[in-house]
């Protein structure tokens, strides 16, 4: 298997290679969640740069779940024209397209949403209230309707954001989610909403629509053993075409014996379901190593910001690696990174912008 070997999935189009653009927060959208020219150029440039899958940033499925100003939305039909333009642009560049569907839950921004945050449990210190059972069903519906909207816009698929401490990940938090309505307590019940979301999307979209999910291996109340169990359930369910494991560091060990985190997931039976990994993959050699460990594809994040054509560069030069950080504003602008995105990087990612 090589990085530039095509990848077939159970549903939808073949990816031209094993390199996916990671879903990256960029704060470039308009205040109402509609697509900006800057965000269009940022994403289409990555498609033109050779990525097999080009994915949006986390895109809110309901206004109540919006996490930050400048976040892309898919919660309303007013978002459709921009999303359609984006899907058309990615397709014209030869890449498969996906929208990452997102609800931030207790990590939403009340100053943006205009309402208190919601979560699986009450948290008075964070002005967060517990969702009712009926509201949980509405969240499931919001994800399904958003997927329908993505399909109407012409996207090839969606990825459900179940990682990084956002709403679906919050339900998996065994420390806090002790609900008694079938959505908390046992691991099976804490995972229930995730499976309902995936089933809802499958039932409401066509047979050639690709569905993936991003998961977290540990942290935010999730322990590794439970993450492995849930990942195994999803891989075995037939509900998704791929699982995207956000490992934070794809090369990290998990114990004193030197066992690798990546092995805990690539060793799982997966049938026709594909498994991808993300986390500090910044060179062609590192990406190939992940494939050698059993991953079907890799997500490229920071290296894709610095090099819109990382796939093309890594195909031409098997030793290609991301330029050293920090990089200049001028370099980033030349890579179709807008000034607002540069400001976000400069404020939140130390030593990225020089």
Walkthrough of the structure:
This protein is of the alpha/beta class and 354 residues long. The protein has 2 domains: 19-313, Alpha-Beta Barrel (TIM Barrel); 323-354, no CATH class. The chain is built from 14 helices and 10 strands. It has an 8-stranded parallel beta sheet. Strand 7, helix 8 and strand 8 form a beta-alpha-beta unit. Helix 4 runs parallel beside helix 7 (192-204). The longest helix has 21 residues, at 133-153. It is globular and about 55 Å long. The model has no long low-confidence stretch (mean pLDDT 97).
Strand content: 5-15%
CATH architecture label name of the largest domain: Alpha-Beta Barrel
Distance between the termini: 37 Å
Provide the CATH superfamily of the largest domain: Aldolase class I
* CATH topology heading of the largest domain: TIM Barrel
Helix share bin: 25-40%
Features:
TIM Barrel, 36% helix, eight-stranded parallel β-sheet, two-stranded parallel sheet, single chain, 354 residues
Topology:
Elements: E1 19-21, H1 37-48, E2 53-60, H2 80-92, E3 96-102, H3 110-113, E4 117-119, E5 128-130, H4 133-153, E6 157-162, H5 167-171, H6 187-190, H7 192-204, E7 210-215, H8 224-237, E8 242-246, H9 261-266, E9 274-278, H10 284-292, E10 297-300, H11 302-306, H12 310-316, H13 329-334, H14 339-348
Parallel strand pairs: 1-10, 2-3, 3-6, 4-5, 6-7, 7-8, 8-9, 9-10
Helix pairs in contact: 1-2, 2-4, 4-7
What is the gist of this entry?
With 354 residues, the chain is of the alpha/beta class. It has 14 helices and 10 strands.
